[in-house]
Amino acid sequence: MRLVIAGIGLIGARHLAHALEMPGIEVVAVVDPSLSQDHVPHFATIEDVDLAADGVLIATPSHLHADHAEAAAARGWHMLIEKPVAHSLEAADRIIRAADRAGVRTLVGHHRRHHAAVARLKDLLDAGVVGAPVLASMIWAMKKPDPYFEVPWRAGPDGSPVMINLVHEVDLLRHLFGEVVEVAGFGSNAQRGAARVESGAAILGFAGGVSATVSFADTCASPFGFEAGTGENPNIATTGEDYLRICGTEGAIAFPSLTVWSGAADWSQQPGVRRESFTPNIPLVAQLAHFADVCAGAAPLVSAEDGRKSLEATLALEAAVAPRRVAA
Asked: Could you tell me which residue ranges the Gfo/Idh/MocA-like oxidoreductase N-terminal domain spans (predicted)?
């Protein structure tokens, strides 16, 4: 696969590093108007690229995704678009229409679906190890350093942890439990006082009857979060702590340890406990390998339409947790 990478910020730089090391992937160009690299030819815009390519990885700020996707689709490039697929439903629809017009395929970068531990969790739930899922409880609580917000677009509402981080969690919960039908919540900006939500809690109701609580903050020095628990992000310290617990009619499971409690008929009995195993992988690498298959004709694991559904649920969550007042 001949690949163009558009955007080499925090996540784009990680994609570039992996892609340069992967057999079967040739990075033919990088597009970024401000950041530079010296591995491959560099261009300021997608339109400037004068090399042949099969696909593009769009890792630019989300409010630019639709513009860049339209330009890429016009070139006939298949697209891997970082999450969220776009910043609005209207922009997501532009991406879907552009891909349909050009006859190209789109994969949305919800890379946690490619994580081996997530795949094992999904298999265990589908196999009924906890019976019918009823409840889920999730805590994502990290403390972002102040320099993180020195990037201009992160300083305002677009720097909300909902659209940057919780979109991952919403997509994961959709992957496990199906479609979100109800959202309620409360949010605060009491610590930094910026014009964005920085902490809060939400309740998500799913069509199948599962209720999930999601507590979040980018102001807490805690060990709880997907990245901290799994160690999948080199920019975030690894703690190995569980951040998600799922309870069902016949047991419970904690993630990412994959600790399973089962065998108790009711509260009078002691459940058995065990830990399930899996073979670790690098999800960004697995996602790139899948994108190569998508460019060759495979169906995407996360289509643009699927990414739009996660975006819609995340936007509803963001609206539910919008701070009622700006902190003094």
From this structure: 2-110
